[in-house]
Amino acid sequence: MFFSIVFIVFQVILATIAVYQFTLSLFGFLKNKSRKRHAPQKSFAVLVAAHNEAQVVGALIDNLKKLDYPAELYDVFVICDNCSDNTAEIARGMGVHACVRTNNHLRGKGYAIEWMLKELWAMPRQYDAVVMFDADNLVNPDFLKLMNDDLCEGHQVIQGYLDTKNPADSWITAAYAITYWYCNRLWQLSRTNLKMSNFLGGTGMCFESKLLKDMGWGATSLVEDLEFSMRCVKRGIYPVLNYDAKVYDEKPVSFRASARQRLRWMQGHFNVARNYFFPLLWASIKERNLVKFDAAVYTISVYNTLLGFLLTVVMWIDMALPADNVIHSMYSYLPWWLIGVAVTATVLQFPAAMMLEKVRSWKMYAHLLTLPFFLVSWWPITFYAFFTQNNKTWSHTQHTRVVRIEEVQGK
Fold first, then answer.
1. Which of 80, 170, 306, 358 could covalently link to 88 via disulfide, CB atoms 3.0 to 4.6 Å apart?
2. Are residues 134 and 168 in the same domain?
3. For 252-292, what is each residue's pLDDT tens digit?
4. How far from chain centre, in Å, is Cα 251?
């Protein structure tokens, strides 16, 4: 009986969080109103994080040089971090700044950004804002215009809309694309509509320079984006989403490469949860602040995944044993129709998000059949990440081909 009570308590906690997130997601069905437009006036330092990115960095640089924004108001800086290829030569040859960093002890994107910002603040020219991309990204031509609009409206931290530039390459990239559409619409946009904090996604990010100088970067975990998001929320600065500012990110094609990338994310997420959950939770209670409570809940989503995996395994083992069941599940006390409604609502969220995002490819909808395998694979990855969370080794995603913005936009 004791084990059953503990089991049910954990199930109730997970179900409560799931209902909370589902309730928030309903506010993503309505699209936010367009923001006020402003004439170009803000200057930008566009940082491109690159580690051995010779194959793809040229496509991004070419893309960035053609942005629909006055050329005199932005400069591109490629952070050539511990590169052993000709990334720096390509950047210089294309007329942008190649900033070479070599440090075999402090490796990873977070450290590279921290180093680059110190270099940037020491330069003669200072910029109103800093924009960050990864070298394998592509971006819509109006990106800086939209960042300029938000900065002029007083926003200090802005996240662009993260999309996938190679969704049709494999069932893995299709799964990434579907989950990104889902998160953009039913996680990010819902929080925008509720005037809650959005969460940074690692690329397509814009920061007011004054804020960065005041806060410092200080985000050197394996998920520097989530870490900086929580630092902002803790200070009462809430990142916003610009739904129209699209960035296209390259996703791993193979399951093995995907698992390695997601393992890094989960390892870093455990680190952020450990450092920020309780401070944000106490602050939310003390200040009666729902935004900080939501951020605290988001930090422990990695533990939700871990706990869900463990409870499922225990339940499967209990059902497989020949003796009478030792563990009683919460679901045995619920009416069948309620369980059916919950499962149906969960399953329909993904195609609903795709329809709201106007996805027209039938092949993408067909990949909804393989999506469950991708989602379930998060369980063992998260389980392994829990025991290796102190590992801070940065894993590099190998590129398979070059994609240009014209291909992504279907031109």
1. 80
2. yes
3. 999 999 999 999 999 999 999 999 999 999 999 999 999 99
4. 12
Q: What are the tens digits of pLDDT across the range 114-154?
A: 999 999 999 999 999 999 999 999 999 999 999 999 999 99
Residue 178 lies in a domain: yes
Q: Is residue 48 part of a domain?
A: yes
Structure tokens at 76: 């591109």
Contact 252, 173 (CB under 8 A): yes
Structure tokens at 113: 């950004």
| Tokens at 127, concatenated | 């910029």
One domain for residues 22 and 49:
no
What would the two tokens of residue 401 be?
Answer: 């081909």
H or E element that contains 132: strand 129-134
Residue 263 falls inside a structural domain = no
Q: Strand 129-134 to strand 138-139: parallel, antiparallel, or no bridges (unpaired)?
A: unpaired
CA–CA separation, 45 vs 248, rounded Å? Answer: 19
Structure tokens given for 83: 């590169």
Q: Which residue has the tokens 């940074």?
A: 200
Residue 395: inside a domain: no
Distances (CA, A) of 49 to 82, 89, 97, 131: 11, 15, 12, 11
Q: Please provide the DSSP assignment of 224-266 as one string.
A: HHHHHHHHHHHTT---EEEEEEEEEE---SSHHHHHHHHHHHH
Q: Is 177 helix (H, G, I), strand (E, B) or coil?
A: helix
- Residue 37, both tokens: 């437009």
312-334: b or e for each residue (b if 16 or more CB lie within 10 Å)?
eebbeebeeeeeeeebebbeeee
Domain that holds residue 159: 44-252
Given a contact cutoff of 8 angstroms between Cβ atoms, the answer to whether 268 and 395 are in contact is no
Residues 362 and 284 both lie in one domain: yes
Could you give the strand order of the β-sheet that contains 129-134, starting from the edge strand earlier in sequence?
97-101, 74-81, 44-50, 129-134, 205-208, 157-164, 240-249, 138-139
| Nearest CA among 220, 213, 215, 242 for reference residue 231 | 215
Residue 351 burial (CB count, 10 A): 16
> Which two structure tokens, joined as six digits, stand for 321?
């044993």
Domain count, the chain: 2
CATH number of the domain to which 235 belongs: 3.90.550.10
Q: Say how far apart CA 141 and CA 139 lie, in whole Å.
A: 6
Residues 132 and 234 in one domain: yes
